[in-house]
Amino acid sequence: MQSAVKQGKQNVFVQKSTDKTATIGMICLDAPPVNALSGDKGIPQAIAAAVQEFDADPAIKAIAIYAAGRFYSAGADIAEFRGNPATDAAPLRSLFEALDASQTPVVLAMHGVAFGGGLEVALAAHYRIAEAKTKLGLPEVSLGLLPGGGGTQRLPRLIAMDKAVEMIITGRPVSAAQALENGLVDALFDGDARAAVLDFATKIINENKPVRRSRDQEIAAFDPAIFDTTATKLAKTAHRNPGPMKALDCLREAAQGPFERSLTFEHRAFDALMEHPQTKGICHAFLGERTAVKIPGLEGQKTSRSMDSVAIIGAGTMGVGIALACMKAGLQTLLLDLKDEALERARANVERQLAGQVKKGRLSQDRADAQLALLTLSTSFADMGDADVIIEAVFEDLGVKESVFRQIDAIAKPGALLASNTSTLDVNLIAAFTNRPQDVVGLHFFSPANIMRLLEIIRADDTSADTLLASAEFARKIGKVGVVVGVCDGFVGNRIFEEYLRQAYLLLEEGATPEDIDGAMEQWGWAMGALKVMDLAGQDIGWAIRKRRKVEQPDRPYSTFPDQICELGWYGQKTGRGYYNYPEGVRGGATNPDVLPMLQAHSIALGLIRRTVTAEEVVERTLLAMINEGAKILEEGIAYRPVDIDVIYLNGYGFGRDRGGPMFQADLMGLKTVLARLEELSKGREGWALKPAAILYRMQEQGLSFADLNAGKTVQTDMQE
Ligand code: 3HC
């Protein structure tokens, strides 16, 4: 007997059948790609209904649940977290109730991955088995949440409290072998989940095994000190992610019992987190990183080009970082430079970095050796003829790039991906140095290129669709988040960064100290404040850009205070002085006592009376500048979607994950507030820099948020209206 629970027009996500003896009720979850327990698709409801129907059938002696596809389940559907606890979590909770109410034993088989709500369904089943390579975990805390489907209540009833605390607080999965050892599962199997669950269910029937609910089991004795010691450890990070501490509270409650009361406590805590702006930010980041790598119009398409070998031209810091990233991904890596000495230095640098990773225990010696074996060094451009991908990482000068690209064009094989790592130059001009502009793209890495996850993929006018697909595939292969953007000065990331820095410098002139600025930003969620970033990157780089800007954009004046710092030769960390001092052994910089008197003199020279600048003002003004520039970037079509901007900031600039990105923040503030504040600030000092982008007015008129644009809605222009 076989029946299917149909949802929508044709999709079947839950199949119901019986075995050939008609004594085992089989329920198969089949909802690609990850068997998420989507309430909108009716999945938990359908499983609950199937359990109830089988339970009511006297012929059915056991119920067996398993899943089809590459793994069992990724848990609740994160895309459905709309911050409405009453509806978001209800369908899943009704499934747990159905499992608890069943008088017929329920066996559940997991394979591949059993995460979050998926594992919680298993915890509520009466017997659990797992395929030997399964990873079982409750990763909710990494989304700023806690296991809200009874996980914090059932897990400590099945495994020792210290192990339950560890699994839930860290979100780290355990292996199937560990799960068997600690009592999380009853047996392991190899091969097909359907056959295994059928065998186990038959055994249950033959051995007359009873219904065995996790909710009825006693929590084994444990040392209650674990709660306080864990809370002390969590206190340092709780302000960035509220999930783990709340999860610990739920575990504490579980120990008090009774089950029903502490389960209600867990549900309330979960519901409150769903509405928490930081949790929303983290969930936005999770889904955003998976959206921003998709190229609109090319979804589901793949390149036919191979991406197995890379040639990198330029053996400086950036070239070495790119080479390390490629070697780590197992690509044949050729590093080219004109001079032997440069290559020798590069090899020493690569070896030093690999040895450092081995020393820190992050890499085995064997793997370091294997990575190093992938590296070839050469001074001859002729050697790059076979490379699938060629990346230019030479000095940022159009003349130098021209000479390099003409040589690449002469030697590269047909179909090779030709990339420039320029951070400022026009990729259209670079593409025009070749006879194959369709194969040319910008690949903007962020330093250190082997660590930073962001890769801006810059599409020039003639870049072909397949070249974009190949670039996205290359990014994926080397573990980067590749976001496609258009050509403009600074592309998306640095263009926004310039406006954000502009406000930071203006605030310095008005009364803030570097510590005020960086302290406010870091407290709010940035990995590093703007001025510390400049000290790290090297003040001379910003100085060169400002000199260029003075000529190119005389109507957009910049604070001259950073120039004064540079004139003293204070380039930041590399010279031991910048906005901060960097004495040997002091991490993160110490106050530079000369900066404040310089600032005071500078403010007087500008006719400004220094005032107190609050942390809120620092955060608000810099953020508004970013939002406004982001809006202009969207208006010009340089970024496809607001979420692309968010993902660029989360992965390349240390924007706090719990803050979700600048455009996400704009939605949290509300467009009305954003516009009102920008209008207000644009009447103040250097107000031109915060004059609201026209698109913001149109969005407000049309009632659109940035989330709406992410969902595919478009802003109508005057002409369309
Ligand atoms: N909900 C909705 N979509 C999900 C999802 C989920 N739980 N998990 C993954 N997806 C989506 C991804 O967005 C992606 O979408 P796309 O096809 O549009 O790009 C697709 O599934 C594939 O995901 P990945 O690219 O991440 O695939 P991988 O094979 O690399 O990884 C995974 C699979 C290990 C399951 C990984 O996706 C993952 O860790 N997912 C999150 C798991 C999680 O955090 N679960 C807890 C959810 S909260 C919960 O259950 C609450 C409960 O306690 C009440």
UniProtKB/TrEMBL annotation:
MF (Gene Ontology): (3S)-3-hydroxyacyl-CoA dehydrogenase (NAD+) activity; enoyl-CoA hydratase activity; isomerase activity; NAD+ binding
Gene source species: Thalassovita mediterranea
Location in the cell: Peroxisome
3-hydroxyacyl-CoA dehydrogenase NAD binding domain residues: 309-486
Catalytic activity annotation: a (3S)-3-hydroxyacyl-CoA + NAD(+) = a 3-oxoacyl-CoA + NADH + H(+)
Pfam families per record: 3HCDH, 3HCDH_N, ECH_1
Pathway given in the UniProt record: Lipid metabolism; fatty acid beta-oxidation
Keyword rRNA-binding: no
Full protein name: Fatty acid oxidation complex subunit alpha
GO biological process: fatty acid beta-oxidation
InterPro entries for the chain: 3-OHacyl-CoA_DH_NAD-bd, 3HC_DH_C, 6-PGluconate_DH-like_C_sf, ClpP/crotonase-like_dom_sf, Enoyl-CoA_hydra/iso, NAD(P)-bd_dom_sf
Keywords, sorted A to Z: Fatty acid metabolism, Isomerase, Lipid degradation, Lipid metabolism, Lyase, Multifunctional enzyme, NAD, Oxidoreductase, Peroxisome
CDD domains assigned to the protein according to its UniProt record, in alphabetical order: crotonase-like
